[in-house]
Amino acid sequence: MAWIYLVIAGIFEVVWAFYMKQSEGFSKLVPTIVTFVTMAISFGLLSISMRSLPLGTAYTIWTGIGAVGAFIVGVLVLGEQANAMRIIAAALIVSGLTMMKLSTPA
Question: What membrane topology was assigned to this protein in its record (predicted)?
Fold first, then answer.
């Protein structure tokens, strides 16, 4: 279950990052509220996952999901650039996350 909580926490991290961008520096009320609510959910689920996962593993996976997820949302939803260097960087993050998962006992 810890891994499921961690993945969901990572997804909520992507959501709060997107809405933080939409809040325009917390100047728009609804995106600001969505940012803080999803941030609390993300942190809460991360905390639950850390009950049984090592700190380094949980935090690395959480931030990695957030980083790659935000990159994908930026490209697909916000029209940000997806050049070869950025795609390779995202792939390297994913490979690091995979190695972290494989090196951590269930």
Answer: Multi-pass membrane protein
Q: The whole model's pTM is what? A: 0.89
Number of domains in the chain: 1
For 48: left if phi > 0, alpha if psi spans -120 to 50, otherwise beta; the answer is alpha
Tokens representing residue 72 in the block:
């994908």
- The arithmetic mean of pLDDT across residues 14-37, rounded, is 98
Residue 26: φ, ψ to 5°: 60, 30
Q: Determine the structural domain holding residue 16 and report its residue range.
A: 2-102
